[in-house]
Write a structure and sequence with these properties.
Elements lengths: L1 H10 L3 H31 L16 H10 L4 E2 L3 E6 L14 H7 L7 E3 L5 E3 L2 E6 L5 E6 L13 H12 L18 E8 L2 E6 L32 E7 L3 E6 L13 E6 L3 H9 L5 E2 L4 H4 L6 E7 L2 E7 L9 H10 L2 H9 L3 E3 L24 H10 L7 E7 L3 H15 L4 E7 L1 H10 L5 E7 L4 H6 L15 H12 L3 H17 L3 E14 L2 E2 L15 E3 L8
Parallel strand pairs: 2-11, 16-17, 16-18
Antiparallel strand pairs: 1-21, 3-4, 5-6, 6-8, 7-8, 9-10, 10-11, 12-19, 13-19, 14-18, 14-19, 15-19, 20-21
Helix pairs in contact: 2-9, 2-11, 8-10, 9-11, 14-15
Amino acid sequence: MFFLYKMKTKLSLNNETKSLVGCVFMLTTKLAKILLLVTVFALVLCGCSGNKDESKTPANDDLSLTELTEAAQSEPTYGGSITVGITQDLDGLDPHKAISAGTKEVLFNIFEGLVKFDPDGNLNPAVAENYHISSDGMVYTFTLREGVKFHDGSLVSVEDVIYSIKRSAGILEPKDPTVVVESALSVISDVVATDEKMVEVRLKQVDSELLPYLTCAIVPKDYDELNTKPIGTGPFKFVSYTPLQSIVLEKNEEYYLEGVPYLDRVTFKISSNVDAAFMELQAGAIDILPYITDVHASQLPKGYHLEAGPMNLIQGLFINNKVPPFDNKLVRQALCYAVDRQAVIDMVAGGRGRVIGTNMYPGFKKYYDESLVNTYPYDPEKAKELLKEAGHPNGFQFTITVPSNYQPHIDTAQVIVEQLKQVGITAKIQLIEWSSWKSVVYKGRNYETTIVGLAAELAPRETLARFRSDAENNFMNYINPDYDGLYKQAEIETVEEKKIQLYKQMQAMLTNDAVAVFIQDPYQMTAVSDKLGGYTHYPIYVQDMSLVYYKKGTNPINE
């Protein structure tokens, strides 16, 4: 009760104070952006090069990031409530129907699969106690953990597991057309129970990358209120959801893992954009705010600190390969030469980020082809030559469609617009709401270019699957039969070294065809209250609140 009162006190600013805070913040932000663009323009004129030694950039200064994180930790306590700022409304509460990474990162706290990722990227048993893969790779056998309960108190059964996996794989009868079928699970031929605690997942063909997709949420069989009253097995239980406002979770007192979660209650507060959320943080109404910009990071108020780490997110200028003039590979390659990726990172994120040249996440180290970073060094003159060869000696005009709720992508677009002017290309930015982006760009493919981040997939093959000619999520409209052939080979390849080589061939093909201007694996910058510890970065797109705690001496319920 004391904490609730304290939060209300934080929010009770008078109108004059709120207005002053808002005006100061908006003025500071606008000035910062103006300075950003002026600086970029100056750098371009001075010949800012992408060939600098990247090992000396702040993006690779891992020690300082580690020190930031370690300095934030201290002895944890139990109890208390926090508010986490998010800048995207949820697109549903049913985990098998959610599309947006922003939704999935919240639902991570409610639902779990047979296995679950840890902060180091390892797959650990979750609803399952252990698993075994047959020698021929055709059968995955899972033994369920004893005593795991859903949030309504009912025990998880083998029937629930079979129902959940079949539903996610699209092989449940009758089929629900609104379920987002996980294509990687299409390899499953059947899911059967061999006894009351054991489930076999049987495959049509060998698949060495199936296990990460068995993180799909286990839900109660035939439960028809998942999208309004979701029930899972995770560390937090659903309390309420108000569209465009908040989703509230409370501690699962019967969670099977001892020691977590620490907090009693977590509210994910939804704001229209990161600027609005940051204003609330400045007013003390938000305790944790992920995905802040470099401008925000430089303006953290007293009582907050910055935590940063790689996101395993592919940020790029994604191109509709079917729309003129981008149906010409020379034009796409010209864009790649005209964009100074390191300058984008320096200007937008204060150097926090990693330049990339491929669609593969650097976190998939053995599959990632780092040599592709150097395919398109910043070279405006080369860009002009290609434009002339493509029949556009005086450049052309086009639109960059950007989701309005992602400030880092907006800032990136602003920098790129200035860079492209140097080669005679005029680009304009069109801001669009996230829901409209999904329908117009992602599903409708009605756009020229867009700047977004593709969230880390669970297995390296899926980062390549979206570029298949027939893939539903191939919103770039990339059509290449040779690429499709390589993908089919890799899909059934069981020798790891051969699979790696095929993956690298596909990456090189995408880069050489300039299917997109791959920019960076950004660093996630998160503002965290000094009272809190345990905030953890994952190699996948999640916000794990089970590890967050109030430090000893700061917990409001003990004051």
